Amino acid sequence: MNVPLTKIILARHGATDWNTQRRYLGHTDQPLNERGRKQAKELGSALTHFHLDAIYCSDLRRARETACEVQRAVFDAGLSRPPLIADARLRETDFGWIEGLTYEEAMARFPEEMTRWYEQIETRTPPGGKESLSDVRSRVCDFMKEVSGQDYSRILIVTHGGVINSWLAHIGKKPFWENPLKHGEWTECEGQEVRETE
């Protein structure tokens, strides 16, 4: 069964220190760094013409701070301030043992576990983690189905790279590993539907 979806804009939060240092950043609640705050403000300026009905974001600080900058920019442009709703289903995955490690450190410390994870990312969790890629996709689809039932014309969703990649792969727009959005970037999804996960 397919569920019609409100038109959405997906945006990746601004950068944090760990992002800049190429560390695995999942549930650790890091704030934006100076570069990330600049990216968030630029994102807000870029989206003021969309007349957003609502802004949804991950409940993690880096996403909330980014969403607040967009909300502020919309209001400063003389438009109605859209409601901002944080939702834990939009969180990045929990990276378990490798949370906070650089990509190189994780591979050096857990070479076998990392290799198995990358080879079976759909069904295997990160070393010591709790969710596989299919688990992340399932909670994101639950969120999207719920949002599609709201009376919105266009919404913004501020979330994380893994969540965005999972969703774009699910709707057939981009393969997961292509990483289409950098920090502070956005893409619009028109006329997509939520397919039931298997």
Give a short summary of the structure.
This protein has seven helices and seven strands, in the order ββααβαβαααβαββ. It is α/β, with parallel strands linked by helices. A five-stranded mixed β-sheet has the order 4-3-5-2-6. The protein has a two-stranded antiparallel sheet with strand order 1-7.
How would you describe this structure to a colleague?
- There is one protein chain.
- With 198 residues, the protein is α/β, with parallel strands linked by helices.
- The chain has a single domain (2-100, 136-195), classed as Rossmann fold, CATH 3.40.50.
- Helix content is 38%, strand content 15%.
- It has helices spanning 17-20, 34-47, 61-76, 103-109, 111-119, 133-148, 161-170, and strands at 2-4, 7-12, 54-57, 84-86, 154-159, 186-189, 193-195.
- The strands form two sheets. A five-stranded mixed beta sheet has the order 4-3-5-2-6. A two-stranded antiparallel sheet has the order 1-7.
- β3, α3 and β4 (84-86) form a beta-alpha-beta unit.
- It starts with a strand and ends with a strand.
- Residues 194-198 have low confidence and may be disordered.
Q: Return Rg in Å.
A: 17 Å
Which term fits the overall shape? globular
Number of helical segments?
Answer: 7
**What is the residue-mean pLDDT, rounded to a whole number?**
91
Output the helix-strand order. EEHHEHEHHHEHEE
> Architecture, according to CATH?
3-Layer(aba) Sandwich
Given as residue ranges, the uncertain stretches (5+ residues, pLDDT < 50) are 194-198
Total number of β-strand segments? 7
* Percent in helix: 25-40%
Cross-sheet strand order for the largest sheet: 4-3-5-2-6
Distance between the termini: 11 Å
Q: CATH class, anyone?
A: Alpha Beta
- Tally of individual domains: 1
CATH H-level name... which superfamily?
Phosphoglycerate mutase-like
Task: Characterize the biggest β-sheet.
Answer: 5 strands, mixed
Give the strand content.
5-15%
* CATH topology label: Rossmann fold
Which structural class fits the helix and strand makeup?
Answer: alpha/beta
GO molecular function, one term: fructose-2,6-bisphosphate 2-phosphatase activity
InterPro entries: His_Pase_superF_clade-1, His_PPase_superfam, Phosphoglycerate_Mutase
Pfam families: His_Phos_1
Keywords: Hydrolase
